[in-house]
Specification:
- This protein is mostly helical.
- It has 7 helices and no strands.
- α4 runs parallel beside α6.
- The radius of gyration is 38 Å and the shape is elongated.
- The longest helix has 21 residues.
């Protein structure tokens, strides 16, 4: 149509989805879509699930006892850990379902769950671990403390009240420390196939442990 019929107020047309008519229109029906709510115009931003949203706490620490690179020393350490395993089992400190393999992993120094079920008081466990961590044959590790080991590795509540220890438990703790120290002489056992505690030759070290306890009390 000629420019004479175009409304003078229209100079440029920028609208989309819209049609303008310039002239008379008859016999037509126009429908307009319903206005959409503002919430539907902008899709809601969905929160992306973060895989690390619930970060699992790291695996609990273990004691760094084994010295790798020296097969002779490693063999002696492994034998002594097995003796301690046998003793703890016979003393009723750990349950019968704890395997020697799982027990050994507690001394490798790598974070992991060792599946050791502690059966007696947490006071014995706490003080035992405190003493072990002070030994020169246990390598220092950041974040490896008796309290965290008791809670994370054994699922117990730490208690370091030494007045709750009886003399027998004190001797057994000291005996454990002496056995793990390869500088202390220890007669060879008859091997891992024996289930008799008599085969574990620790009588001499037990005497030393009892002597240390009497000496400590006399100070």
């Amino acid at each position: 149509m000629s420019e004479d019929y175009k409304p003078t107020y229209i100079h440029e047309q920028h609208n989309n989805n819209c049609q303008q008519f310039f002239g008379p229109i008859t016999n037509c029906t126009f429908t307009m879509p319903a206005a959409q709510p503002s919430s539907s115009r902008k899709p809601k931003a969905t929160k992306q699930k973060n895989a690390g949203e619930k970060k699992l706490s790291g695996k609990p620490k273990t004691l760094k006892y084994y010295i790798h690179g020296n097969k002779g020393v490693l063999r002696k350490q492994s034998e002594r850990v097995y003796i301690v395993f046998r003793l703890w089992n016979n003393w009723g400190w750990i349950d019968d379902h704890t395997t020697a393999e799982d027990f050994e992993t507690f001394f490798v120094g790598e974070p992991r769950y060792c599946n050791i079920t502690w059966k007696v008081s947490s006071t014995i466990l706490t003080i035992l671990l405190q003493e072990l961590l002070q030994q020169p044959y246990i390598e220092k590790q950041t974040g490896c403390a008796a309290k965290s080991l008791v809670e994370q590795q054994f699922s117990k509540t730490a208690n370091s009240d030494r007045t709750r220890l009886d003399e027998d438990s004190e001797v057994k703790i000291r005996l454990t420390l002496l056995i793990l120290d390869i500088r202390n002489p220890l007669q060879e056992s008859s091997g891992r196939n024996s289930n008799d505690e008599v085969d574990i030759k620790v009588d001499a070290l037990r005497a030393v442990a009892e002597g240390q306890l009497r000496s400590t009390k006399g100070i």
